[in-house]
Specification:
By secondary structure, the chain is mainly α. It is built from 16 helices and 3 strands. Helix 1 packs antiparallel against helix 8. It is globular and about 70 Å long. Bound molecules: coenzyme A.
């Protein structure tokens, strides 16, 4: 036994001071740069939220127009990046292709690393704009369809949905995809942001940090949870089976994807916002999506009864996201691209903030192996 305190999963450990995002896990509140997520989701736009997160203030009209123009100018991809997507996307996981394409984007930047904040904000704008185009191109290639060029008459998230699905979204879907982007834009020191911070703390460039974020987002305990949740809903199959499925899963100590959170011990405010959208589409889509919506709404009630108040395990943003993505024509294997396209701004803002007072991440581990073993030549080993 040693006296070292092991902070498994870094639970409860503060790693930096940040003014970007506050997650109040006890009260179920979320703020970006001081503004509550409910106001931003209802009254703002994703482009404005990006400006807010990067510049730490809400833009004036002209500032927002210039910012939108910059995003538009950066939307296109080079032939080389498109080739990478075409060669990889059909067989690889979306995030594997995304991080490879992001590495290629950095090759076109003659000076990927800069210590200058304003230069890095310009790089962030470039990365945010191109990530959406890459993500949509991955989706098109996966389906064996032609890649669609950006449409500069459309806003960022609306254009993403258009490039991905091939359909110009109506007003309802334009608002919904924008809300999705806003809700996923930032979430303090979650696993992928921490991954990006570890990379940037070595003074690697902002592209490398974003690639680290994308790599870390992939797993089902983080970015993959929305896909896992919708796969679970598909396997439940019928709303009438939901209660039996959940009770058997819990009895078998299986986790229900889309519930629980390391920080939120109350209802995730993002999930609350999405539930309102789900209530609105309940019964108004094609039969298979209506079923998913019903299963989600039934599962929410049952899980709150079983684990909500008693165990602090509430729905998180990933639980309701899946059926809403399906409603917008986004298939489960593409969910991660929405998440990573939205979250890129958060990663970049954290990297830029962290570099103001950079400290290399280098935690310790408690060694539990042996020491001073005798080296036996290979011929003598039994
Ligand atoms: C997000 C998550 C990893 C955070 O959990 P954590 O802080 O690491 O806590 P643990 O995974 O150790 O869970 C603590 C307890 O709650 C239970 N629990 C947590 N999430 C659960 C879920 N979704 N369904 C059922 N039980 C759950 C665990 O089984 C564990 O029970 P035990 O103490 O009896 O062993 C976890 O809630 C989870 O795996 N959720 C499902 C995946 C998901 O939705 N991820 C997206 C997060 S935004």
């Amino acid at each position: 036994m040693s006296g070292n305190m092991i902070h498994s999963g870094l639970e409860g450990v503060y790693i930096e001071k940040s003014s970007i995002c506050k997650v109040d896990g006890e009260k179920g509140k979320l703020y970006y740069r001081g503004y509550c997520i409910e106001d931003l989701a209802e009254k703002s736009t994703y482009e404005e939220v990006c400006y807010l997160i990067l510049y730490n203030k809400l833009p004036k009209k002209k500032e927002l127009e210039e910012f939108s123009e910059k995003l538009k100018r950066e939307r296109t991809l080079s032939k080389e990046v498109l080739e990478i997507i075409k060669n990889m996307a059909a067989k690889a996981h979306v995030l594997d292709t995304l991080r490879t394409a992001m590495s290629a984007i950095s090759a076109d930047d003659p000076e990927p690393y800069s210590a200058d904040e304003s230069v890095n904000i310009e790089k962030a704008i470039r990365i945010i704009a191109k990530t959406a185009t890459i993500s949509a191109a991955i989706g098109r290639t996966k389906k064996g369809k032609e890649i669609i060029q950006p449409d500069n008459s459309l806003d960022h998230s609306e254009n993403f949905l258009y490039m991905l699905t091939g359909n110009k979204p109506d007003r309802e879907k334009t608002k919904l995809i924008d809300v999705m982007f806003i809700l996923h834009a930032e979430h303090s020191s979650n696993a992928s942001t921490f991954g990006a911070l570890v990379a940037c703390s070595t003074l690697a460039d902002i592209y490398s940090a974003v690639v680290a974020g994308e790599a870390t987002l992939k797993g089902p305990l983080h970015g993959g949870a929305d896909e896992a949740a919708v796969r679970m809903m598909e396997s439940i199959g019928d709303p009438a089976n939901t209660e039996k499925y959940i009770d058997e899963a819990l009895a078998g100590k299986k986790k229900i994807m889309g519930f629980g959170h390391r920080v939120y011990k109350a209802y995730d405010p993002r999930a609350k916002i999405l539930k309102r959208y789900l209530d609105e589409i309940d019964g108004n889509d094609e039969e298979d999506i209506n079923k998913l919506v019903r299963i989600a709404l039934t599962a929410e009630k049952i899980m709150i009864e079983r684990l909500g108040k008693s165990h602090g395990i509430w729905p998180n943003v990933d639980f309701f996201a899946g059926p809403l993505y399906m409603h917008m024509g986004i298939k489960p294997e593409m969910f991660d691209t929405v998440f990573s396209s939205s979250r890129t701004v958060g990663w970049c803002a954290h990297v830029i903030e962290y570099w103001k007072d950079n400290k290399l991440f280098r935690p310790l581990e408690e060694y539990t192996g042996k020491t001073d073993l005798e080296y036996i030549p290979i011929e003598q080993r039994r």
